[in-house]
């Protein structure tokens, strides 16, 4: 099956003052449930190895990570071909309780924004104070005219998730704002401030 | 452009992340209701000059609806609170009373 | 003649010569020059013509307040009109041209307007051009259009090659203005621990202080400025930006900043402009003050300049405005100009002081230098046309009928006192008070603009606050107040340095020079240089009954030009107040509106141009459509193929081919844009029963049901097929346009009204590519793929199954929007393209073809199926469309039920859905109105219906239509008349809307 599947913008890449890369197929499972309920905590732990993340945080496991999306929703990131099994494990574990599980891998496109100045690139399109975000944080916001979730996935990297239908728009947008020569030098690099 | 704090996800964001939903604490009148009640529910809005309670959705964020108490003249925000209530919480009322002693109260 | 001085110029680098052209003539300047400075250095005093009278005009000011010296910059795609030469940094290769003259700058025929100024007085366009009526359009307007206005707009074909961007930024304290007050405020706020942003609109720090002979801690201001900037730049909590103007202060600490990143380096990779969308906890405005002109006859002749601007040119750029200068003033400050000129070796013919006995330190100093001072005098009139040749002096309290002295000069420096720049303070509601001593409005610190927490969020300091002497202590105090307002624990802020200036004696307001000037003189005293508004115009407005300053502004156009009255505002108010016989504060000011100076439209657009102008939503099959001749149609932000044209085929033919092929063979439709919302939970059935007009809770898993959604008014807003997945979950299909809106609608009810109901929704719209396989051979094709039994028995009409088709994970719905045998197949979006390719390949010999949205519409219209947005327009209830069968009578409540019970909704005269066939088989025009004979009480035609959908049906070989007609279903067979183009009437018969396969046998095979 995997040879039949393709991501929204396979292989798209742009080298600006940060590097924009379409991340390829990414498994995603949404879970809506009472995140404080014990069976839910256990089901997530069993299916992903992760604890329930705190508000606007992402917890990392070996094969999956879990992102806080709203007070009653988490998103599980995993390998594309693992999404179905994780979803079904969760559904089975939570059978009978008020919880909804859905695979949403293909509804989304994922981009990595790599480079120390990723905040400077995203500051041009997101009304977010990126100095308040540190590694492991996730912030749902707006990137220019479309919805986006920005996960600080590394020391010098952010992962941006948007709807699949606007992948082309997002790639063009990210390429535009990270064009060489347009560095706004707004966010001082950590090495300079520390 | 307003800044509002979403009580559901804790984010303080600018107005463009939210979508407005008009007056808060409306009571729904469905089948069997009088014409007057139905008209009030559908069409009568307070539109005050001063203290007002409004619905907002964190459309570009957590997707949740919440309510805001705000002064429509000065744009002062007295507070935001979850939407699952039929009237403003006491601490919001108290804060408004303290800042606007002349306010007639929520009705 | 203006010229470059042999030495000096603190901002220029004489080692870096830069060439530029003005009206085609090559000129030379230095790096660090403004364009205005280098033009003056080249002896170019005449720079443009005025708006109405085409009077010769030159540079008046040295900064953002300049009203006159506007030029067109650049060429072709990069051309930009109305650029202020005083804020344009010179660069090598700059191209400038003057504006608003014909045929050229030196000889302007339209200056004839100047000879008949009585036709162009205040409100001239309301009065003069009324009669005869026809003359406005054919005579007056063309002439006015030709002679008025400033620069010309760039060509409509021009495409700006530069890049622009925006940036969102956040800080605790934003300091606007990089003069010494702003620098001190930034330093103090930063030392107090705040995260600070500092903006300066020009290309250099320090503002006026070095030019104004300020000393700080006993040293020239430049020393302190350098040191302070260095300190700030090394502080981790401080960001500084030159060439960044605070354009507007808005609600809740939102500030727009306009950074001209690369205007001065046009060949760089950097974006030309960057719009800062700043959120600041506190704002300190250190925006300085602007000198006011004096109103004397001929104050607009090239060579008359603000006194402060004149010393700016001398000190900053080593440019002398002339060889012999007369300084005219009502205050001590202008003596700085006289002293500066004298020290630079420029002739000072005299200082003409309106005051009787100026005894301040500066006048004394001037006397010591041997400068001639005429006291109690004013300028009667300036001599000269394209350039000052001299002035006539008279007693200040006279009518100016005769002169007392005549002085030869080639430049005049004028100073009418200073006005704080209060724009940013005022934008968001900060109030002003009148300062009697300085004769200006200044911010009232007790009435600041209020922020989100109800407290003031703007502080102001230095001369912007009306502190016209020492400013550093004030700036420090403002910064500490700002930091404290943010809750910062102020600890480390060091005491500020001490800035000293010579003591100044009080100024004396002079709003008109001489004070009792006769009419002829008042006719030549300019208030608003750019819009050509004079003292006499404002006085005329007052005589004609204008009392409100806002009305007078619009009537006279005072302050309405691109400089927004930066020089004219207070002088105009004073003249109006005097004419109305009331004090200036009683007249008040006009409203200060952002932006402070004009900003480029491109900066406002930011990145949103070209491919990112707006989001384009693509389905997983988008590229296939592109590669296969899709003729696109926008559907919201989606693009959907309207039809697929084959070589040599017209649009119309392509659509007809697609319709026929789908009815005869097999058609493929990309239906991925359809909304797909998972509704799940113990109360999901109950919830859908509220949302839909019909019953959904009784639907069995595995089955599908069509349903209607109404808003609380009872008006139909969406429709679609609901599939029950299991006991607790339903998959709701919405219209393409409704997906996001209906999902939000569901969440609204769940979160805000029925929050105790256990229902989740998940918008799965984009998780799946959805492909409709439609036509009599559809089943044959799917059987070829194998993997799922798609027989009538295994998968009957209005049911669905999960499974495999070939290698693909599919959910197959037996639903039909065409009346044909139809399978709508959802596959994960990532497999969408491969699945579509597979279908096309396997179906080749079955005659498979894709069809677009137009064929989709025709196929459904032949079946009499409604389309949201065609048959509905937000005022149509389901009963209007004959959909009563889809409205549950059993349910006590559903959204819209109460609304449908209203009197108007049960009116038997409502327009209702019918089919329409023209007698001649033609296609009715879209939206055509049915017109009945006679007139209504208003004498208008009476309408009794309208066309909602109309197509050519290739299946039936004629035009088909649906429409809403008054009592339509009761009038079957009746002929009614529709309005066509012009007087044309088209007769159509009312028929049943279902025109194809009335029994529904084809879709049920």
UniProtKB/TrEMBL annotation, chain A:
It comes from the Bacteria. InterPro entries: SoxG (IPR007375), TrmE/GcvT-like (IPR027266). Pfam families: SoxG (PF04268). This is Sarcosine oxidase subunit gamma. Gene3D superfamilies: Heterotetrameric sarcosine oxidase, Probable tRNA modification gtpase trme, domain 1.
UniProtKB/TrEMBL annotation, chain B:
It comes from Roseinatronobacter bogoriensis subsp. barguzinensis. This is Sarcosine oxidase subunit delta. InterPro entries: SoxD (IPR006279), SoxD_sf (IPR038561). The lineage of its organism: Bacteria, Pseudomonadati, Pseudomonadota, Alphaproteobacteria, Rhodobacterales. One of its GO terms (biological process) is tetrahydrofolate metabolic process. Pfam families: SoxD. It comes from the Bacteria. One of its GO terms (molecular function) is sarcosine oxidase activity.
Automatic annotation (TrEMBL), chain C:
Transmembrane segments: none annotated. Residues 524-606 form the SoxA A3 domain. GO terms for molecular function: sarcosine oxidase activity. Keywords: Oxidoreductase. Pfam families: Fer2_4, GCV_T, GCV_T_C, Pyr_redox_2, SO_alpha_A3. GO terms for biological process: tetrahydrofolate metabolic process. InterPro entries: 2Fe-2S-bd_N, FAD/NAD-bd_sf, FAD/NAD-binding_dom, GcvT/YgfZ/DmdA, GcvT/YgfZ_C, GcvT_C, GCVT_N, Sarcosine_oxidase_asu. Belongs to the GcvT family. It comes from Roseinatronobacter bogoriensis subsp. barguzinensis. It comes from the Bacteria. This is Sarcosine oxidase subunit alpha family protein. Residues 621-891 form the GCVT N-terminal domain. Residues 172-425 form the FAD/NAD(P)-binding domain. Residues 912-997 form the Aminomethyltransferase C-terminal domain.
């Amino acid at each position: 099956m995997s040879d039949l599947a393709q991501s929204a913008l396979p292989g798209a890449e742009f080298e600006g003052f940060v590097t924009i890369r379409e991340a390829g197929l990414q498994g995603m499972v949404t879970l809506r449930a009472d995140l404080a309920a014990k069976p839910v905590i256990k089901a997530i732990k069993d299916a992903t190895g992760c604890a329930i993340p705190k508000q606007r945080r992402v917890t990392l496991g070996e094969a999956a990570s879990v992102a806080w999306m709203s007070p009653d929703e988490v998103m599980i990131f995993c390998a594309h071909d693992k999404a179905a099994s994780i979803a079904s494990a969760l559904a089975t574990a939570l059978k009978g309780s008020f919880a909804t599980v859905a695979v949403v891998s293909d509804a989304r496109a994922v981009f990595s924004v790599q480079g120390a100045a990723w905040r400077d690139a995203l500051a041009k399109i997101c009304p977010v104070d990126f100095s308040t975000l540190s590694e492991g944080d996730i912030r749902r916001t707006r990137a220019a005219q479309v919805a986006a979730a920005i996960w600080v996935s590394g020391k010098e990297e952010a992962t941006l998730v948007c709807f699949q239908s606007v992948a082309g728009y997002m790639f063009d947008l990210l390429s535009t704002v990270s064009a060489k020569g347009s560095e706004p030098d707004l966010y001082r690099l950590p090495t300079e401030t520390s | 452009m307003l800044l509002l704090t979403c009580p559901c996800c804790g984010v303080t964001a600018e107005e463009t992340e939210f979508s407005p939903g008009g007056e808060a604490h409306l009571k729904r009148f469905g089948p069997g209701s009088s014409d007057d009640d139905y008209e009030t529910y559908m069409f009568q809005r307070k539109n005050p000059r001063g203290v007002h309670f409004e619905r907002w959705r964190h459309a570009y964020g957590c997707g949740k609806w919440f309510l805001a108490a705000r002064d429509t003249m000065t744009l002062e925000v007295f507070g935001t609170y979850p939407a699952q209530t039929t009237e403003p919480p006491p601490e919001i009322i108290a804060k408004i009373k303290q800042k606007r002693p002349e306010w007639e109260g929520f009705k | 003649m203006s010229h470059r001085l042999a030495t000096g110029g603190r901002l220029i680098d004489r080692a870096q010569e830069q060439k530029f052209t003005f009206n085609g003539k090559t000129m030379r300047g230095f790096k660090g020059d403004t364009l205005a400075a280098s033009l003056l250095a080249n002896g170019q005093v005449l720079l443009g013509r005025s708006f109405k009278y085409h009077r010769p005009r030159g540079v008046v000011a040295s900064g953002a307040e300049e009203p006159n010296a506007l030029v067109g910059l650049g060429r072709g795609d990069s051309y930009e009109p109305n650029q202020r030469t005083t804020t344009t940094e010179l660069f090598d290769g700059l191209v400038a041209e003057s504006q608003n003259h014909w045929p050229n700058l030196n000889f302007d025929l339209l200056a004839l307007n100047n000879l008949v100024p009585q036709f162009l007085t205040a409100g001239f366009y309301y009065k003069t051009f009324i009669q005869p009526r026809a003359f406005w359009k054919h005579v007056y307007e063309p002439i006015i259009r030709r002679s008025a206005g400033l620069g010309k707009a760039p060509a409509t074909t021009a495409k700006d090659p530069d890049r622009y961007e925006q940036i969102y930024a956040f800080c605790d304290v934003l300091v606007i203005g990089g003069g010494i007050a702003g620098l001190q405020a930034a330093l103090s706020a930063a030392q107090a621990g705040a995260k600070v942003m500092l903006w300066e609109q020009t290309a250099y720090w320090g503002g006026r202080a070095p030019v104004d002979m300020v000393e700080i801690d006993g040293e020239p201001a430049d020393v302190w400025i350098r040191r302070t900037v260095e300190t700030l730049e090394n502080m981790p909590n401080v960001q500084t930006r030159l060439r960044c103007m605070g354009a507007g202060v808005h609600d809740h600490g939102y500030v727009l900043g306009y950074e001209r990143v690369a205007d001065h380096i046009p060949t760089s990779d950097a974006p030309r402009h960057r719009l800062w969308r700043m959120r600041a906890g506190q704002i300190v405005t250190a925006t300085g003050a602007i000198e006011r002109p004096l109103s004397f006859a001929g104050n607009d002749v090239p060579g008359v300049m603000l006194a402060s601007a004149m010393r700016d040119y001398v000190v900053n750029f080593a440019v002398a405005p002339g060889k012999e200068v007369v300084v005219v003033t009502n205050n001590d400050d202008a003596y700085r100009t006289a002293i500066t000129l004298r020290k630079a070796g420029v002739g000072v013919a005299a200082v003409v002081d309106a005051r009787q006995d100026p005894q301040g330190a500066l006048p004394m100093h001037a006397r010591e230098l041997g400068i001639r001072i005429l006291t109690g005098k004013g300028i009667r009139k300036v001599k000269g046309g394209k350039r000052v040749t001299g002035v006539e002096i008279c007693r200040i309290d006279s009518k100016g009928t005769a002169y007392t002295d005549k002085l030869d000069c080639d430049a005049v420096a004028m100073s009418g006192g200073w006005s704080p720049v209060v724009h940013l303070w005022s934008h968001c509601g900060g109030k002003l008070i009148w300062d009697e001593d300085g004769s200006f409005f200044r911010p009232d610190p007790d009435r600041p603009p209020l922020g989100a927490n109800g407290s003031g969020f703007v502080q102001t300091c230095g001369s912007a606050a009306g502190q016209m002497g020492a400013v550093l202590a004030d700036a420090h105090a403002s910064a500490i107040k700002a930091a404290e307002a943010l809750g910062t624990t102020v600890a480390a802020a060091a005491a500020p340095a001490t800035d000293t200036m010579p003591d100044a004696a009080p100024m004396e307001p002079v709003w008109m020079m001489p004070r009792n000037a006769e009419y002829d003189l008042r006719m030549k005293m300019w208030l608003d240089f750019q819009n050509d508004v004079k003292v006499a115009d404002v006085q005329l407005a007052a005589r004609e009954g204008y009392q409100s300053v806002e009305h007078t502004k619009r009537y006279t156009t005072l302050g309405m030009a691109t400089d927004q009255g930066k020089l004219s505002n207070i002088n105009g108010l004073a003249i109006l107040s005097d004419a109305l016989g009331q004090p200036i504060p009683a007249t008040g000011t006009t409203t200060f509106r952002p932006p402070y100076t004009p900003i480029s439209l491109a900066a406002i657009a930011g990145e949103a141009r070209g491919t990112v102008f707006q989001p384009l939503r693509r389905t997983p099959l988008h590229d296939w459509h592109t590669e296969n001749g899709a003729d696109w149609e926008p559907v919201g932000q989606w693009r959907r193929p309207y039809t697929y044209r084959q070589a040599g085929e017209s649009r119309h033919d392509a659509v007809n081919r697609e319709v026929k092929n789908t009815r005869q063979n097999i058609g493929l439709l990309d239906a991925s844009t359809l909304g797909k919302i998972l509704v799940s939970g113990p109360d999901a059935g109950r919830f859908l029963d509220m949302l839909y007009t019909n019953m959904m809770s009784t639907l069995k898993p595995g089955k599908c049901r069509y349903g209607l959604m109404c808003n609380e008014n009872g008006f139909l807003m969406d429709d679609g097929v609901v599939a029950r997945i299991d006991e607790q979950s339903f998959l709701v299909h919405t219209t393409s346009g409704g997906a996001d809106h209906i999902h939000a609608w569901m969440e609204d009810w769940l979160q805000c009204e029925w929050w105790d109901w256990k229902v989740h929704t998940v918008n799965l719209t984009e998780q799946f590519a959805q492909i409709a396989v439609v036509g009599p051979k559809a089943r044959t094709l799917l059987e070829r793929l194998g993997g799922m039994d798609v027989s009538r028995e295994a998968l009957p009409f209005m049911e669905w199954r999960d499974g495999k088709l070939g290698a693909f994970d599919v959910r197959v719905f037996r639903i039909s929007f065409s009346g044909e045998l139809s399978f709508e197949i959802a596959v994960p979006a990532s497999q969408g393209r491969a699945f579509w390719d597979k279908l096309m390949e396997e179906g080749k010999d079955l005659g498979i073809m894709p069809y677009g949205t137009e064929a989709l519409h025709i196929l459904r219209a032949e079946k009499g199926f409604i389309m949201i947005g065609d048959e509905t327009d937000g005022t149509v209830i389901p009963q209007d469309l004959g959909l009563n069968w889809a409205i549950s009578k059993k349910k006590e409540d559903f959204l819209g039920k109460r609304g449908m019970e209203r009197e108007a909704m049960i009116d038997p005269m409502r327009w209702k859905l019918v089919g329409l066939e023209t007698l001649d088989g033609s296609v009715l025009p879209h939206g055509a109105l049915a017109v009945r004979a006679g007139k209504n009480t208003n004498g208008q035609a009476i309408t009794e219906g309208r066309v909602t959908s109309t197509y050519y049906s290739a299946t039936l070989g004629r035009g088909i239509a649906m429409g809403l007609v008054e009592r339509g279903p009761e009038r079957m067979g009746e002929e009614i008349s529709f309005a066509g183009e012009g007087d044309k009437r088209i007769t159509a018969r009312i028929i049943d809307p279902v025109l194809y396969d009335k029994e529904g046998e084809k879709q049920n095979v």
